[in-house]
Amino acid sequence: MKTKTGKWITSGLLTLATAGLMSANGIAAEKPNIVLVFLDNFGWGEPGFNGGGIVRGAETPRMDQIADEGLRLTNFNVEAQCTPSRSAIMTGRYAIRSGNGVVPLGDGVYGLVQWEYTMAEMLSDAGYATGMYGKWHLGRTQGRFPTDQGFDEWYGIHNSTDESTYSSRPGFAESGVEETWVMDAKKGEKPKKVRPYRLDYRPIIDKDLTDRAIKFMETNAKEKKPFFLFLPYTATHFPTMVHPDYQGKSGNGAWADMLTQIDAYTGRLLDSIDDLGIRDNTIFIFTADNGPEMAHGNDIVSLDTTSQGSPGPWRGTLFTSFEGSMRVPFAIRWPGKIPAGKASNEIVHEMDLFPTLAKIAGGKVPEDRMIDGMEMVDFMTGKKKKSGRESVIVYMGNDIYGLKWRNWKLHFKELDTWAGAVKEYGMPKLYNLYSDMSERENVFFADTWVPKAAMPKLMEHAASLKKEAPIKPGALDPYTPPTTK
């Protein structure tokens, strides 16, 4: 794995460490395959297993199958924007630490420095084949592509799907802005431009991602090599354009058609795993990067998607600090290891997947930097009822907006919509998430004991930022962390 200076430990040491971990943990004699489906701007209330599905216009039986055959988490938390969320899940660290607290604007250098150690690098070092198909949003310059950060291969886009609209917009051709391309890359090679990412390819790309993902699984299953498949789909990011095979499929409009499409692609993945005979030794995770998009008019394509996404009973969309932004669908299946049909409202954060999967796979978690994720193998496998996590620092960009502690939420700032005005309070607002899912009834003065109990968590976090200075946005490689006194 990468050390603080970017050097690598010897394969012999890694083999010994891996063998020791597997022996000590007794998790599995054979490393399980890992499939991580990561949807884009997909709200908590979309899948049937969270009360969506038919009430959103389309059944979601294959999404629901994962929950029925595994564990459903109703309190799975992410960061509020695409880039921060992807940084957090890849590194097991709050995005503020990696310098990726906000979605980048412009074409400058951004993303993960080489010093960061990603989930893909960790699993690659543990002997896994690693493939990614879809949206990256963690760098588009040399040294910052997925194949520079642990993935053996990648097909997809650097940034966001709204860029597919560029070529159709008035004035773009004369702007001097580079057109977005779909990329194809292998580790150790320069990524190749495949085709421009335009509206003609927008409805088709997720099928191509699914096809490539299945081929990746087939290849590695045949070679009996454990694999990590990361599938960050472009759905359901604006513009929501359905593949021709699914247009009108639901009979309830374009959004329901998109749900049908996502469910069908999920089903193809599940069926392929069954056909390959690797069902019992494959961890399948279904989740998303953040909550749904805000309502907006769509003057680019003629679709009835002016009010996109459902956060379920929670308030807010992406780019806010409310639960509708932070809570996303989550279901995980691992037959014979994770009990079927279970649900939990314990707090879990996307950062927790890094150390959890590391323990399962025999990977190494860096000890030379702050890791915010918590290992939760015993919780996931039903040996413990508690996740071990009691709090989450609520970020909006690089600013702390709140603190979530148990069933309580402290708000120091609030933003109702992405384009609204920031409201900053002299005294924080306090919400009880059990009795007030929409976060509107301030009970601060009725329960002043809660801030006294919760605030030490925020103080610990603040102290950690002083001990280990966050990487500055746009930091160049090679990056060496400053020496702490």
From TrEMBL:
Residues 32-362 form the Sulfatase N-terminal domain. Keywords: Calcium, Hydrolase, Metal-binding, Signal. The keyword S-adenosyl-L-methionine does not apply. Its cofactor is Ca(2+). GO terms for molecular function: arylsulfatase activity; metal ion binding. InterPro entries: Alkaline_phosphatase_core_sf, Sulfatase, Sulfatase_N. Pfam families: Sulfatase. Residues 1-28 form the signal peptide. CDD domains: ARS_like. The keyword Hydrolase applies. Belongs to the sulfatase family. This is Arylsulfatase. It comes from Oceaniferula marina.
